[in-house]
From TrEMBL:
InterPro entries xref list: Lysozyme-like_dom_sf (IPR023346)
UniProt protein name: Chitinase class I
SUPFAM superfamilies referenced in this protein's UniProt entry, alphabetically: Lysozyme-like
Top-level taxon of the source organism: Bacteria
Organism field: Shinella granuli
Amino acid sequence: MAIDRKAFFDAVRGTLYGGRLAGTQVAGLAALLDRFERGEVEDRRFLAYMLATAHHETGGRLQPVRETFAATDAEAIARLDRAFAAGRLPQVSAPYWRRDGEGKSWLGRGLVQITHRRNYARLAGLTGIDLVGRPELAMEMAVSVEILCTGMLSGAFTGRRLADHFSGALTDWVGARRIINGLDRAEKVAGYGRAFFTALGG
């Protein structure tokens, strides 16, 4: 399903990006539009919420990021270690980001951050991409787009799928946050989703 890209970018530039879009943001948005236009699904609410999720999870950058927004794995690990030692990660029982016996770190990476080896393995099985052998692939745009789209369509992240929240007359912008992370920042992400949906001609 073709999207009027000029109308889309004109709309989001004003509503979500303060009147200006960097080239990297345009590239990230375009990569998600390209994936949607392959035709696997046609419900633009799905695309709007995927865009909203990528926007939120990357702090508006629309490029794959590491947990803590660090430039390198080593810096992300150091930041997480400091936060853990200071008691700022009460939800974490074991430091999953520390390198394993093979030197791999299972910290969060991507447009929607997957963490822990088991989750990399689950997404590897669904996408056919070797995320266990090379977890750093989640930092590549094409791979990260596939992880986000496949994960949100299949329910790989939490068991909840886009179809559980957008189907026929059902439109659940707030509850859709459960696809990724409970109801954390659910109202904020819902607002992004509605803005993207309007920009898509919804």
